[in-house]
Amino acid sequence: MSALIRPAALEDLNGLTELMYDYIVGFYQNPGPPIDKVHHLIQTLYDTQQGIQFVAEENGRLIGFATLYFTFSTMKADKIAVMNDLFVKEAFRDTELESQLYLTCKNYCVDQGFANMTWITSINNTRAQSFFNKMNAVLGKDWVHFSIN
Description:
5 strands; Acyl_CoA_acyltransferase; GCN5 family acetyltransferase; acyltransferase; single chain; 4 helices; Diverse_Substrate_AcTransf; transferase
C-alpha cells in the first residue's frame, strides 16, 4: 500500500501527538511540552482554521506531518502561510514521500491564494537545507531572524 497525504482529522490526535513528540524531543532534542498543550494546539488548528496540519499515512500508521500557520505580510499586503513543521520518520527521509508532503503544503498555499509560504530550519539541519535546495526553495537573504523566549 502506498502512502496517503491528507489533512489531519480529529481521529489522528494520538498518532499526530506521537509524531510531534518524535519531532520535538527525538529530532530537535527539545523538552517535550505537556501533552494537554499538544492536544490543545492540534484541536485549535482544527477548530479555528488558523492553520492546517497534513499527515502522511502508510498502512494505517502516521509516518509524517506538516503544519502551516496562516498570517499576513504587511510588505505584501496579503495573507501568507508559515510552514512551521515538516517531519517524516527517519526511514522516509530523502524519499518521494517527503517531497510529496512538502508539495502538498506548497500546492495548498497556491490553491488557497496565499502570497507565499515561508519557513525556517535550524542552522545545523543541513539535511533539511539540502532537501529545500533540491525543491528549488529560495534561501532568504534580506532578513535576520530574532526571537524571544
